[in-house]
């Protein structure tokens, strides 16, 4: 009908459908149902052993679910053949607590190398240019030639973030990205992750940092004993949210 408006729901970028993952007889996550939308910044919290890392590894297809389905940007991570896993990984940037930079490569080489690994057709020159752009974006354009040991922890984590987003993936997952950083630097990295989400990337951050989660007022998923016990929308993160695990 002319003039009428059709509303349609955008598909989730990440979708967990009844996902359980066990290690032997140990159930790490159980019956997880979850959707993450494009451009959301979401925190994943819970005590040690709650299943946060397992959930992130399921997204990146480091592990497969014991049962259930994991969809990432339209790809079935739960049943991808080994040859298709690279397609999935191109869509998922990853940041770790301990940065995991290659120590013998400069900041720029770390970023450019990651780009070329995900796409073998990218020339050295293009990788260098895009790597420099990514380092500029995280405020480290002037340290491109520094080796990891010449950078502070916060700077190394910025390089790691640049490496994770250089291929402009629709999704960034971060496992305790501020766990090794002092309070001020942790905030700087969090601001960076927020900027990345504001530019349209979905960002999922597993963290123990209660202060950051409270003040950011973003969506919070709480895992306890492998169960998703709370899914709090952005802006409604209050005291009760922490009772289960803090
Ligand atoms: P979190 O990241 O919240 O600390 P994990 O996902 O690392 O939790 O772990 C969830 C549960 O799965 C824990 O009980 C842990 O001991 C178990 N687990 C994790 N990885 C393995 C593994 N490779 N082998 C056996 N058990 C594991």
What does this molecule look like?
- This protein is 31% helix and 25% strand.
- The protein is built from seven helices and ten strands.
- It has helices at residues 52-59, 85-90, 107-118, 124-137, 153-165, 183-198, 210-216, and strands at 14-23, 26-36, 41-45, 67-72, 75-76, 92-96, 171-175, 202-206, 219-224, 227-232.
- Strands 6-7-8-3-9-10 form a six-stranded mixed β-sheet, sandwiched between helices. A four-stranded antiparallel β-sheet has the order 2-1-4-5, covered by helices on one side.
- Helix 5 (153-165) packs parallel to helix 6 (183-198).
- Bound molecules: adenosine-5'-diphosphate.
- Adenosine-5'-diphosphate is lined by residues 23, 26, 28, 46, 48-54.
Task: Name some characteristics of this structure.
about 250 residues, alpha/beta, six-stranded mixed beta sheet, four-stranded antiparallel beta sheet, 7 helices, 10 strands, disordered C terminus, binds adenosine-5'-diphosphate
Short description:
With 246 residues, the protein is an alpha/beta fold. The chain has helices at residues 52-59, 85-90, 107-118, 124-137, 153-165, 183-198, 210-216, and strands at residues 14-23, 26-36, 41-45, 67-72, 75-76, 92-96, 171-175, 202-206, 219-224, 227-232.
Topology:
Blueprint: E1 14-23, E2 26-36, E3 41-45, H1 52-59, E4 67-72, E5 75-76, H2 85-90, E6 92-96, H3 107-118, H4 124-137, H5 153-165, E7 171-175, H6 183-198, E8 202-206, H7 210-216, E9 219-224, E10 227-232
Parallel strand pairs: 3-8, 3-9, 6-7, 7-8
Antiparallel strand pairs: 1-2, 1-4, 4-5, 9-10
Helix pairs in contact: 3-4, 3-5, 4-5, 5-6
Adenosine-5'-diphosphate (ADP) is lined by residues 23, 26, 28, 46, 48-54.
């Amino acid at each position: 009908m002319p003039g009428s408006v059709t509303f349609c729901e955008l598909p989730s970028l990440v979708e967990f459908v009844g996902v359980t993952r066990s290690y032997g007889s140990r159930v790490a996550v159980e019956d997880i149902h979850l959707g993450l939308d494009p451009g959301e910044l979401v925190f994943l919290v819970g005590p040690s052993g709650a299943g946060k890392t397992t959930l992130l590894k399921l997204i990146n297809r480091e592990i497969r679910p014991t049962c259930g389905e994991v969809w990432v940007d339209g790809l079935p991570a739960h049943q991808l053949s080994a040859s298709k896993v690279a397609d999935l990984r191109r869509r998922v940037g990853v940041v770790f607590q301990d940065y995991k930079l290659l120590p013998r490569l400069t900041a720029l080489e770390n970023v450019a190398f990651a780009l070329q690994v995900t796409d073998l057709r990218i020339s050295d020159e293009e990788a260098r240019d895009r790597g420099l752009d990514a380092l500029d974006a995280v405020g480290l354009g002037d340290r491109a030639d520094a080796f990891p040991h010449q950078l502070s922890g916060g700077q190394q984590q910025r390089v790691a973030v640049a490496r994770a987003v250089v291929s402009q993936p629709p999704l960034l997952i971060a496992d305790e990205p501020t766990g090794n950083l002092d309070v001020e630097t942790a905030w700087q990295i969090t601001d960076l992750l927020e900027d990345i989400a504001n530019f349209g990337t979905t960002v999922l951050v597993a963290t123990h940092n209660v202060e950051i989660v409270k003040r950011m007022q973003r969506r919070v998923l709480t895992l306890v004993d492998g169960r998703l016990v709370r899914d709090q929308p952005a802006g409604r993160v209050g005291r009760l949210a922490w009772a289960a695990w803090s």
